[in-house]
From TrEMBL:
Alphabetical UniProt keywords: Cell membrane, Membrane, Transmembrane, Transmembrane helix, Transport
Compartment annotation: Cell membrane
A Pfam family reported for this protein in Swiss-Prot or TrEMBL: SDF
UniProt-listed InterPro entries: Na-dicarboxylate_symporter, Na:dicarbo_symporter_sf
Name of the protein: Dicarboxylate/amino acid:cation symporter
Main localization, broad class: membrane
Its membrane topology: Multi-pass membrane protein
Bilayer-spanning residue ranges: 12-29, 41-62, 74-100, 132-155, 175-197, 209-235, 297-315, 321-341, 348-370
Length: 412
């Protein structure tokens, strides 16, 4: 039994710490306020590493994909499909959350007032800065990601010299991941302490809003899993493709729920794709790429987190916020979700991009930890659907893969 729970170990420990923190905050508010500095120290450590983590990880990942330019048509279709399959669940969960408001009028009371970045939205300043130093601030994460992507592409196009830089970036990325792993040792204590202080002056009914938000996500997951997968399969090849998908969907679905890892499920999804009748060379090219690029479950939960936190903070979810939510969700799915070891990066990305109070981070972590398994399920099964769609649009003819070895694809 304990072996079956191993993939959930870190999430269970974290959730336990947050529950204990919530109880302390509600029933022992004086103690909760006393231990708040512990939580602040932990979050500040994360904020200090976020800029090098994002910059180096994204640039390194893009630079490592340089050889994939030889697969221009396939990669282009994969990117279009991945972006589309991130937008659809994001818009859907926002629509559901607007109908079934998870907060139900319960609001988070803060000691200090704050102003979101979207109050007077300046799109130019959100995606760029007027000097390099501005990229070194956690308040400009969107701009940092864009410049990191451009930098990664430039490295990939720089031949042998670029390869040397890419190797150095990979080494630096490994070191940063070690730093993150050291910081994350204190995650249960740090987030538990901060959550306790957040709940110290709140209405206990606030805890119920988590259950509503999570129930909404689980319901949306079931609906999207059934109807979304069927629709995507039909687009990929009509009734025959739908039948082939559902005949082979159980094993990758169970593996996704058991491992909570798209990468860990890759061997199973590859076998399922071939059993579905997808050309072996297309499956071998597409699925390793889709594991990193196609994360509809990540996009859906990112959108729900934003709607949820806006609701509990009593903020107006305007048209401008809607579009920036879609942008953040897509970036979370395609870029942020693919950053290895970037624990809590999604939560920090949301908070810093929208200028939300840091009190929101532990609350978003609660939702993220509980919904990790169903989000992974959507990521994995829709990789199969995306492969069906790619195969249809590039044609059934055998695609030459001589230019790109399976080893290179795995590294990408």
């Amino acid at each position: 039994m304990w072996k079956k729970l191993e993939p959930y170990k870190s999430s269970i420990i974290l959730l336990f710490a947050l529950v204990v923190g919530g109880i302390i905050g509600i029933y022992f508010p004086d103690i909760a306020l006393t231990i708040k500095p512990i939580g602040e120290i932990f979050l500040n450590l994360l904020f200090m590493i976020i800029v090098p983590l994002v910059g180096v990880s994204v640039m390194s990942s893009i630079a490592g994909m340089s050889d994939l330019k030889k697969l221009g048509k396939i990669l282009g279709i994969i990117l279009i499909v991945s972006i589309t399959m991130a937008i659809i669940p994001s818009v859907s969960i926002i629509a559901l959350a607007s109908i079934f408001d998870p907060a139900q009028g319960v609001t988070l009371t803060l000691d200090e007032s704050f102003k979101t970045n979207t109050a007077n939205m300046d799109f130019v300043s959100m995606v760029t800065t007027n000097d390099f130093v501005g990229l070194l601030s956690k308040s400009n994460i969107l701009a940092l990601i864009i410049m990191s992507v451009i930098g990664g592409i430039a490295i990939g196009q720089s031949g042998e010299k670029g390869k040397k830089i890419a190797e150095l970036l990979q080494c630096l990325n490994d070191v940063i991941m070690k730093v993150v792993s050291i910081i994350m040792v204190g995650a249960p204590i740090g987030l538990g302490a901060y959550f306790a202080s957040t709940m110290a002056s709140q209405d206990p009914e606030l805890l119920v809003t988590f259950a509503r938000a999570i129930a909404l996500f689980f319901a949306a997951t079931v609906i999207y899993f059934i109807f979304g997968s069927t629709l995507y399969s039909w687009i990929g090849g009509g009734k025959t493709a739908v039948r082939a998908f559902w005949q082979n969907a159980l094993e990758p679905s169970a593996t996704a729920l058991g491992t909570c890892s798209s990468l860990g499920s890759l061997p199973v999804t590859l076998r399922a794709a071939k059993n579905m009748g997808i050309k072996e060379d297309i499956a071998d090219i597409c699925l390793p790429l889709l594991v990193n690029l196609n994360k509809g479950g990540v996009a859906m939960i990112a959108a729900l987190k934003i709607v949820f936190i806006y609701s509990v903070l009593g903020l107006e979810f305007t048209t401008e916020v809607f579009f920036i939510t879609i942008l953040i969700s897509v970036l979370s799915a395609i870029i942020v979700g693919g950053v290895p070891g970037g624990a809590f990066l999604g939560e920090i990305f949301i908070v810093t991009s929208l200028g939300l109070p840091i009190e929101a981070i532990p609350m978003l972590v609660v939702i993220g930890a509980i919904t990790d398994a169903p989000a992974t399920l959507l990521n994995v099964v829709h990789d199969l659907n995306a492969t069906q769609i790619v195969e249809r649009f590039i044609g059934k003819k055998k695609t030459s893969t001589d230019a790109v070895t399976n080893h290179e694809l795995q590294q990408a």
